[in-house]
Amino acid sequence: MTVREIAKLAGVSPSSVSRYFTENENVSKSVAEKIEAVLGKEEGQTQVKSREKNKTLVLITPHKRLAFYSELLRMFMEQAPSYGIQIVFLPVYKCQTSQCRSILTRLKPHGFILLEEDESSMIYEFARKMKIPVVLCAEDSVDVKDGGYIHVNDVLAAYEGTRYLLGLGHRKIVFFTNYGKGVNASYQRIIGCTKAMSETGLAFEEPYVQYGALTRENGYAFAQKIIKDQLDFTAIFAFSDEMACGAICGLQDMGIRVPQDVSVLGFDDLPIAEQIRPRLTTMHQPLEEFIRCALDFFSSESTMEISREIMLPHSIIIRDSCASVKKGEGE
């Protein structure tokens, strides 16, 4: 039976029937009774239960144009329907605070999913006031009180990535990173890299550290800059695959071969890592597991049954962009 057919039999508007099922807005008790009378008692109870199980989550989309976030958004869109979950994407950075509050109040979401903390203060405030759980995906946080966060051990992953390059004989490693804030992923990766370098008697410091957004454009520009500055190096560890791919292109356009002359290591293991040539060696984050755990969190009868912190395993995916340093060059 279609929405229009139900509306005609119940003597209400099709939009009222649509609101009844989607819960985008409340319908009056009298309208609900008319609709349920048409559906029949047994079918009406089934529909009510279905409505109760359907959940709307608001995914706060970051303003950064990074392939990492695009891949997460794509996965959420693909997996959410199988959970009976509706995902609403909200670019907070384009909204005034008052507009965001109005939109969120109207939606009455069951939860928020955040991909970063930069634009999250208003969301945390709103969520706490409305007692709505929050999940921070692929980041760590000390601010998530009513919800959880899902991430890898970024300190250990960066440490192991650096140790991998050191194990290949590299001692002059350049790191491409963004600035660490609070306890975010970049901050923790910096700690891991610093620890690995210090254990070998080496320093994590400029000019062997280049700071900027983890974009392909910056990877390209940084690679060309350190070549023009005649910096002596044999490897680059970029904190995103996108940045690493930009670095490879920047090096190749300067006549530098990868990995014969310079090794390049990425972070994330996005599809682009398989598409570029040479194929990118990178630290793997289980993005599909991030999505599954986030959706499982909200699919539980009680989100309190789920651990507040979920740390998923990382690994290194060895492909073609890293090689042992030539004798005498890594010293």
From TrEMBL:
GO molecular function, one term: DNA-binding transcription factor activity
Record key words, sorted: DNA-binding, Transcription, Transcription regulation
DNA-binding region coordinates: 2-21
Family annotation (Gene3D superfamilies): 3.40.50.2300, lambda repressor-like DNA-binding domains (1.10.260.40)
Domain HTH cro/C1-type: 1-46
CDD domains registered for this protein in UniProt: HTH_LacI, PBP1_LacI_sugar_binding-like
UniProt-listed PROSITE patterns: HTH_CROC1, HTH_LACI_2, HTH_TETR_2
Ranges for domain HTH lacI-type: 1-38
Source organism superkingdom: Bacteria
Matches recorded under SUPFAM superfamilies: lambda repressor-like DNA-binding domains, Periplasmic binding protein-like I
Segments forming domain HTH tetR-type: 1-39
InterPro entries for the chain: Cro/C1-type_HTH (IPR001387), HTH_LacI (IPR000843), HTH_TetR (IPR001647), LacI/GalR-like_sensor (IPR046335), Lambda_DNA-bd_dom_sf (IPR010982), Peripla_BP_I (IPR028082)
PANTHER family noted in UniProt: LACI-RELATED TRANSCRIPTIONAL REPRESSOR (PTHR30146), XYLOSE OPERON REGULATORY PROTEIN (PTHR30146:SF24)
Name of the protein in its database record: LacI family DNA-binding transcriptional regulator
